[in-house]
Amino acid sequence: MGAVATALGTLVAIAVIGWLLGRFRLLGVGAEQVLARTVFAIAVPSLLMVTIAHADLHRLLSRLAVVTALSTAVVVAAAVLVTRLAWRRPAGETTVVALASSYVNAGNLGIPVAVYLLGDPVFVVPTLLFQLLVLAPVAFAVLDSRPVPQAGTSPVMPPPRRGPVRATTAVLGRTLKNPIIIGALSGLVLAALPWDLPEVVYEPFRLLGAAAAPLALLTFGMSLALPRTPGQEAPVKDLALVVGLRSFAHPVLAAGIGLALGLEGQSLLAVVTMASLPTAQNVLVYALQYGQGQALARDAGVVTTLLALPVMLLVAALLT
Q1: Exposed/middle/buried for 94, CB within 10 Å: 0-12, 13-18, 19+?
Q2: Where are the domains of the chain?
Q3: Where does residue 15 rank: exposed (0-12), middle (13-18), buried (19+ CB within 10 A)?
Q4: Residue 152 in this model has a pLDDT that exceeds 50
Q5: What burial class does residue 8 get, using C-beta atoms within 10 Å of its C-beta: 0-12 exposed, 13-18 middle, 19+ buried?
Q6: In this structure, what is the dihedral angle of CA atoms 49, 73, 77, 148, given to the nearest 10 degrees?
Q7: Is the predicted pLDDT of residue 159 greater than 60, yes or no?
Q8: pLDDT at res. 155
Q9: Buried b (16+ CB within 10 A) or exposed e, 123-145
Q10: Is pLDDT above 70 for 127?
Q11: How far is residue 60 CA from its own chain's centroid?
Q12: pLDDT in tens, 250-300
């Protein structure tokens, strides 16, 4: 437990430094966006490529991935059933609720947690791949095909409505152009090769990847110092549903499914910890882009982020 507390303390300390950088604008206006793009486009893809290339593919496709997929799917299903069937919300709002409940901050927070707390960045890979290859494309397909809202109902002009074929093509193209997907798929290809590349080939990417965790934490801390996006408050029951699913139900589901599939030790700790991560900031980006559920995405990110540390401490106390 002492090692866990030390690891979490390290995460918090770096995030606080990031908050101070953002609060006092020590790196200038817009620095958090530059750091975020650097992490997203260079550091994380490099880390994933090198890590996956040297990983055991059976581990990536093991029970950890099954637990991640099943527990996330149950959370999404619960969010959709309540929001769409019980509350009769439109498809766009339902999609944002489902994303806010299931799409976790695996980049800015998940990778540092995997590195510092779990000791291996490969533990975040199943979560990243499921979100980027399954959750995001499905969400984009729904949002791209929804009816265009009336003028004046959204502060952001949504993308034009597309037909099913064009929407599917656009979603697939967007997914395959994602730098994290490119890095992860490159690592999978290299891991599957019957021969190994010389280590000198990996060294530049290994050096760039080493910056992913600290830069992601600094970016995360700086994002917390940004002024809140103006707009109305999220509906209380929507926010309560999202927070309940994101911060409490998902970790419990991951633990239950993991135990049922025979996971234990570090593997069980890994899947439950990943399920304890807060709502990703990407959800707010998607909500703004499509003009749906902006206030909910914003408030869910704030509340689940505040809850993430105590929840992870509780998870570590129960599983270590």
Answers
A1: buried
A2: 55-107+122-210+232-319
A3: buried
A4: no
A5: middle
A6: 20
A7: no
A8: 47
A9: bbbbbbbbbbbebbbebbbbbbb
A10: yes
A11: 17
A12: 999 999 999 999 999 999 999 999 999 999 877 887 787 788 888 898 889
Query: What one-letter code names the amino acid at 222?
Result: M
Report the residue count for the chain. 320
Report the distance separating Cα 300 and Cα 53, nearest Å. 35
Residue recorded with tokens 């399920």? 275
Q: What is the 3-state secondary structure (H, E, C) of the chain?
A: CHHHHHHHHHHHHHHHHHHHHHHCCCCCCCHHHHHHHHHHHHHHHHHHHHHHHCCCHHHHCCHHHHHHHHHHHHHHHHHHHHHHHHCCCCHHHHHHHHHHHHCECHHHHHHHHHHHHCCCHHHHHHHHHHHHHHHHHHHHHHHHHCCCCCCCCCCCCCCCCCCHHHHHHHHHHHHHCCHHHHHHHHHHHHHHCCCCCCHHHHHHHHHHHHCHHHHHHHHHHHHHCCCCCCCCCCCHHHHHHHHHHHHHHHHHHHHHHHHHCCCCHHHHHHHHHHHCCCECCHHHHHHHHHCCCHHHHHHHHHHHHHHHHHHHHHHHHHHC
